[in-house]
Amino acid sequence: MTDAPIRPEARSPRGFADRRGRDLIAERRLVTRVSAVYERWGFEPLDTGAFEYADALGKFLPDADRPNEGVFALQDDPDEEGNGEWMALRYDLTAPLARFAAQNWETLPKPFRRYAFGPVWRNEKPGPGRFREFVQCDADTVGSDRPEADAEIIAMACEGLQSAGLASDQAVIRVSNRKLFDGLFEAGGVEDAGQKLTALRAIDKYDRLGWEGVVALLGEGRLDESGDYTKGAQLPPKVIAAIEGFLASANSSDLSRADTLKAVSLSGSIGVIGESALNELAAIDAALNAMKVDQASVRFDPTIVRGLEYYTGAVFEAELLLETTDDKGRAVRFGSIGGGGRYDDLVARFTGERLPATGFSFGVSRLASALRAAGRGGEDAVRGPVVVIVFSEADMQHYLDAVSELRSAGIAAELYLGRAGMKAQMKYADRRGAPAVVILGGDEIAAGQVTVKDLDAGRALAAGISDNEAWKAERPGQVVAARADLVATIRRIVDAPHTDA
Predict the structure, then answer these.
(1) The domain that contains 447 carries what CATH number?
(2) Claim to verify: residue 91 and residue 135 sit in the same structural domain
(3) Does the annotation list 93 as a binding residue?
């Protein structure tokens, strides 16, 4: 008697998702549309590898509380001296850009304007809607310290959101400046860099946790619903009170950008650094007004800080306002669908010289999921190929001729290559999302005809027929055409307006 083979359990790693046609097509369509906006604004494409040397990522990591610093890393093969460098999967598309700019700055046009898209990886705790692998689409300007460069990125992001299918009132980009908090910390005597970063990451959760959750993270720490404890920034009570007043100063949705700046300036001491931040935001506001970006699309919001450490000035956060629900009809809040800001010190890690930069990143995977949750997935429904039904081995040449004609005409088509009967093949075509099936039985071949079932029309018509016998009698969506008219008949079906039934 032999032991049964040990078989691994078929399972996906936590935080990684398998995605089929619908999700992939939706994401690719978003990337195509947003990339077209980036190119129209004068940004060139750039593709960097998935891995970077770990020291190139440095301290600017998304989750410093984890032992491996929030990234997936591995050690390269040893070199001639026996040393193997550590490499890590990129956690965003900005750090690789900083490395590329430092490595190639002498040969690049200045400022350097690039866009990029692709998957990124973060070794963080996964959760609902929070994955360890997801797709981003970025645009950045490296080499300009002008606030107009920030304003241009913001205005372009607004156009990108509209190209993705969102109306002007379905998303808003909230803008602030990290130096506002630098000034506030300076005025409160907080000098420790670790305290500052922990505090900023706490404030970044304001929209999700509210003040009650944030104040715990600004103080001793917070125990969340899962039982995980997060150590707090341990700020002095007077600084926590100042932050509360600061956040409340412009917490009114009807303030214009200029009104928000005025409210912040009157909220208390923000020091010289904070005053310079207000001046930069005022210049951004003037440029946005000149580009006719309305107040509802871009708002100033001092609660926006962004969680990554490398931001040095203006920061942006795109928030989805569209109502979304899960598969059970319950309301779901997606919140941020993109963000960015100014990072003037990132390239300097390699060169020692400060090089200003600013950019914005769309969370493509998140935006696609949000649109689907809002019932906007119809246009991204997978429309499969036309399926040619197989009846007899003896007539295989007829089937191959038909599928070849359709493909030559630019129509996606496939020949059924299973061994099932007619009923199962029809079910297969329906599950593939096929717009039509081609039927070439013996009678059709002898008569020089072809039967075409318009599955799109059949689904729509069948929805209004409750009686099975009536459905069989009416044969919704089925037509008979001359064999020579196969391509034209299929073309009319494929080119007709289509929605996901």
Answers:
(1) 3.40.50.800
(2) yes
(3) yes
Question: What is the rounded distance in angstroms from the CA atom of residue 51 to the CA atom of residue 48?
Answer: 8
- Tell me the C-alpha distance between 102 and 237, whole Å: 42
Token readout for 142 is: 């490296």
Say whether both 289 and 431 belong to one domain.
no
* Residue 47 placed within a domain: yes
Q: Are residues 109 and 174 in the same domain?
A: yes
Q: Rounded distance, CA 431 to CA 20, Å?
A: 13
**pTM for the full predicted model:** 0.80
345 in a labelled binding site = no
Which one is predicted more confidently, 209 or 144? Answer: 144
94 marked as binding residue: yes
Residues 249-263, buried b or exposed e (16+ Cβ, 10 A)? bbeeeebebeebbbb
- Residue with token string 């089937």: 399
Q: Is residue 122 annotated as involved in ligand binding?
A: yes
Strand partners, 300: 175
Give the pLDDT confidence score for residue 65 in this predicted structure. 42
Same domain, 146 and 246: yes
Asked if 352 and 399 sit in the same domain, the reply is: no
CA dist., res. 5 & res. 166, Å (int) = 53
- pLDDT, position 250: 66
Q: Where is the domain boundary, 313, 344, 378?
A: 378
Is 310 annotated in a binding site? The answer is yes
Question: Is 208 part of any known ligand binding site?
Answer: no
114, pLDDT greater than 80: yes
Please check whether residues 237 and 177 belong to one and the same domain. Answer: yes
Same domain, 308 and 398: no
* Structural domain that includes position 288: 21-378
Q: Do 398 and 318 fall into the same domain? A: no
Q: Is residue 297 part of a domain?
A: yes
Whether residue 1 lies inside any domain: the answer is no
Per residue in 57-112, pLDDT (tens digit) is 865 444 444 435 688 888 888 877 777 788 899 989 999 999 999 999 999 999 99
From the CB of residue 13, how many other CB atoms can be counted at a distance below 10 Å? Answer: 9
Is there a domain that residue 77 lies in? Answer: yes
- How does pLDDT run across 190-215, given as a tens digit for each residue? 888 888 888 888 888 887 788 888 89
Sequence-distant (6+) residues with CB within 8 A of 122 are: 62, 63, 70, 71, 91, 132
User: Which tens digit of pLDDT belongs to each residue from 227-256?
Assistant: 788 888 989 888 888 888 878 776 677 789
The Cα-based distances of 177 to 150, 181, 183 in angstroms read 11, 8, 11
Write the burial class of residue 82 (CB in 10 Å: 0-12 exposed, 13-18 middle, 19+ buried). exposed
Say if residue 432 carries a ligand binding annotation: no
